[in-house]
Write a structure and sequence with these properties.
With 541 residues, this protein is mainly beta. 4% of the residues lie in helices and 62% in strands. It has a 22-stranded antiparallel beta sheet that branches. A two-stranded antiparallel ribbon has the order 13-14. The longest helix has 7 residues.
């Protein structure tokens, strides 16, 4: 029981007979969670969130069943419902609201379900295969109303609903050919149907504008093969090919992969890796509609190809002691064929995901480029004698090029991220009860945003951006530190665990985004969550 939800879970053998078997028998695991804040809201408790109370519940389960000495069968499932209303019409405008917009009412919901099974069979001590079959369903909807400046009554602005059903088959074959050689091959077949609808409403127009209205089906086929050869006790090389075919656009690609590891001595090793990788575009991007002169629509993104990239990484690892490990890695990623505008512009699909909405640009072409490179350092002390710590430092640069040929920062180019984690456990009492203190610190460079054109925003009544200066303004650096106290009380048949997680306990104001407020006609800064204590109580029996 905590702010993350009321949870109930169980795991164990399916029968006492299975429990008695020394080799292990059939077992199960099941877990259910329900929104704590939704319960408090239903009881009439004021959470200070207004109508923005997250509603969610989810259920997950897995059953494992051995089938003789060489086989293993499992069934798994996951289902969840969620939703939240961000209503500007009920918002207290004297207080800061992180996600909501006081000029809009937004209602959203999401549901998903996954069920599947897998079977693994050992044909011999050196050969096995595994086959997994699964089906999934997702359904999400968002309704947005603009609030009239004259009487603040809601006027329908946008309505979206996306649903997808997917059936998947995954197969793996593994064969140890000799002491030095290992062969692995596999495939994944995804067949899915979809229904994508998005309408925008203009009060002055006679009809609504259909941005997206498409139903259909398609397939994605992936396959791979890998050969590992051990040249000596020190040198191991992995080589392989990965291929995929997307039926919707008839896109095909074959990608080589190569990796090697050289053990310098008992404590040091060097790794080198190269690979080509391809990525689909967001499904909705393929069906964005372009208005035609005859009041019809054309689909101008259906020929989009994969976004492709080349990765090169070099790493050095060293064991400084039995519990202390150091890793240094440098990498470069060159990206090509990213979707961009057909004419001169700053847009690129490489920035998709930086905001809540996916891009709906039409007539895109695969002519964009990008590059990411950096250095990462990890120093880790594994848990020993009641103490652990982990330090990670990442220095990087992330740039992209739109159709205008100008290299810019991506929305994700913070230049650095530093994480520090440490924890200490103290044993108390005669049953090895423990008191734990865990600490985490994160600091990162601020992300980049496109500056707002204030004069045009006032005239339009909404935020309008200087797209020619895309991602040229960097937000203030991010800083947050958390402190968690927990006490574990062990009894013969029951364990109590009480914890208090003080998130952002220094109350640091980290910038979330900068927006234009149509009511005040001012530029406003929205901040991320401040100090937030998260209590939790857990029973294990």
């Amino acid at each position: 029981m905590g702010f993350n939800g009321f949870e109930l879970g169980a795991e164990g053998p399916l029968s006492k007979k299975d429990k008695a078997r020394t080799g292990g028998g059939a077992s199960y695991l099941v877990n259910y969670r329900y929104s704590t804040l939704a319960v408090f809201n239903a009881l009439g408790l004021d959470l200070g969130l207004g109508t923005a109370v997250p509603q969610y519940q989810d259920l997950s389960l897995k059953v494992d069943i051995p089938t003789g000495r060489n086989g293993h069968f499992s069934v798994f499932g996951l289902g969840g419902l969620s939703g939240i209303n961000l209503l500007g019409s009920t918002m207290d405008t004297t207080k800061q609201d992180l996600f909501g917009d006081e000029n809009q009412d937004m209602r959203s919901g999401y549901r998903t379900g996954i069920v599947g099974s897998s079977y693994q069979h050992h044909l011999s001590p050196t050969t096995f295969y595994k086959l997994t079959v699964a089906g999934s369903y997702t359904d999400q909807w968002v309704t947005t109303d603009s609030l009239s400046r004259q009487n603040w009554q809601p006027v329908r602005l946008e309505q979206t609903r996306h649903a997808q059903t997917k059936y998947s088959i995954n197969g793996i074959f593994n064969k140890k050919l000799s002491v030095k050689d290992l062969f692995t091959a596999g495939f994944t077949l995804d067949w899915f149907t979809f229904s994508l609808h998005q309408n925008r409403y203009e009060p002055a127009a006679a009809n609504d504008q259909s941005v997206l209205r498409q139903s259909g089906q398609s397939r994605l086929i992936q396959f791979y093969g890998q050969w590992q050869h051990r040249f000596s006790e020190r040198l191991v090389v992995n080589g392989g090919l990965h291929g995929q075919h997307f039926a919707l656009t008839n896109s095909r690609v074959i990608e080589p992969r190569l990796g090697l590891k050289y053990q310098l001595n008992d404590r040091q090793s060097v790794r080198l890796g190269y690979g080509e990788h391809s990525q689909l575009q967001p499904l909705t991007s393929y069906f964005v509609q372009t208005p035609a002169t005859d009041n019809a629509y054309r689909l101008t993104n259906t020929s989009l190809d994969f976004t492709r990239s080349r990765h090169l990484a070099l790493a050095y690892e060293r064991s400084l002691s039995a519990s202390l490990h150091l890793k240094v890695e440098t990498y470069y990623q060159g990206i090509r064929q990213a979707p961009v505008d057909p004419t001169t512009g700053s847009f690129s699909m490489l920035n998709a995901g930086a905001s809540f909405d996916l891009p709906d640009n039409d007539s895109l072409v695969n002519r964009g480029h990008g590059r990411n490179y950096g250095l990462e350092l990890t120093l880790e002390r594994s848990y020993q004698q009641g103490f652990y710590f982990l330090t990670t430092v990442s220095l990087f640069d992330s740039n992209y090029q739109g159709s205008d040929g100008v290299w810019r920062n991506t929305a994700f180019n913070g230049h650095y991220v530093v994480n520090l984690l440490a924890g200490r456990a103290f044993k108390t009492g005669h049953r090895d009860n423990t008191f734990n203190v865990d600490w985490k610190l994160t600091t990162a460079g601020g992300r980049y945003e496109t500056p707002i054109d204030y004069a045009r925003s006032v005239r339009a009544g909404r935020a309008v951006y200087h797209n020619e200066a895309a991602y040229s303004e960097q937000l203030r650096a991010y800083f947050r530190t958390d402190l968690k106290f927990s006490y574990r009380l062990n009894r013969r048949r029951l364990t109590h665990e009480i914890s208090l997680d003080l998130q952002n306990f220094t109350g640091q104001q980290n910038v979330f985004t900068r927006t234009y407020n149509n009511r005040t006609q001012q530029l406003a800064t929205q901040y991320q969550i401040g100090f937030f204590p998260v209590p939790q109580y857990r029973l294990l029996f």
